[in-house]
Amino acid sequence: MKRLDKIYEGKAKILYRTDDDGLLIQYFKDDATAFNAKKKGTIADKGAINCAVSSVIFQFLEAQGVKSHFVKQLSEREMLVKRVEIIPVEVVVRNYIAGSLAKRTGRPEGEKLPETLVEWYYKSDPLGDPMVTKDHLRIFGWASDEEVAAVERIARRVNELLAPYFEKRGILLVDYKLEFGRHASGLLLADEITPDGCRLWDLKTREKMDKDRFRFDLGKVEENYREVYRRVCA
Ligand code: UDP
């Protein structure tokens, strides 16, 4: 598979064209940003860790019948993916209270939600990804009602699979962000599933093992990313 020109560079990943029109190479960088890119830095080996973690999780989900853009891992930091049209919606799935939900509700971090909560955010850097309702998605033409229903069904299925998957590896899946893409074959889970976009806590100690360590300067960022890698990939 030939890597051709760069078509998009985001905060943590780069997309390249390949000699196959339907396939792209997703390259994982060590760069890290937080608070709508107001905080910038790098996390050593994050690209390799995230590429490996995401590859393993996409393969696990595929084996359980959840289709994604993942084709195969090509190298330490490169993943071959199907070209999709990304739906401009960030789907946040929450099992425990943390982050913006703690702020919005005044409830303490770590409280278990009585049921899984799915939230919708409009994917827009200039607007800072505002939270929206399903009606906004339809009215502003970001996604059809049918797509929203399918996305929610898949997101809930992913959660049913991933919460026990992480628990078996000593990790509490607190919350995470999913993205979806339109493809000739139907809706596909896209982007990545990594400690950058998931809150992952040690099951016993509740120690944070994810990007919150970078966001809030908690130290031992690399060590915790590596530990997630060890528990998921080893
Ligand atoms: N998240 C993400 N990208 C975003 C916003 C959120 O990956 O642009 C993830 C985040 O890592 C967390 C979950 O989605 O696992 C919920 O994030 P929250 O709404 O609490 O916002 P935050 O506190 O991260 O600003």
Write a structural description.
This protein has six helices and 14 strands. The chain has 234 residues and is α+β, with helices and mostly antiparallel strands. The protein folds into two domains: 3-82, 2-Layer Sandwich (Phosphorylase Kinase, domain 1), CATH 3.30.200.20; 85-219, ATP-grasp fold, B domain (D-amino Acid Aminotransferase, Chain A, domain 1), CATH 3.30.470. The strands form three sheets. Strands 8, 9, 10, 11, 12, 13 and 14 form a seven-stranded antiparallel beta sheet that branches. Strands 1-2-3-7-6 form a five-stranded antiparallel beta sheet. A hairpin with a 3-residue loop joins strand 1 (3-9) and strand 2. Helix 1 (46-63) runs parallel beside helix 6 (221-233). The chain starts with a strand and ends with a helix. Uridine-5'-diphosphate (UDP) binds next to strand 9, helix 2, strand 12 and strand 14.
List keywords for this structure.
234 residues, alpha+beta, Phosphorylase Kinase, domain 1, D-amino Acid Aminotransferase, Chain A, domain 1, binds uridine-5'-diphosphate
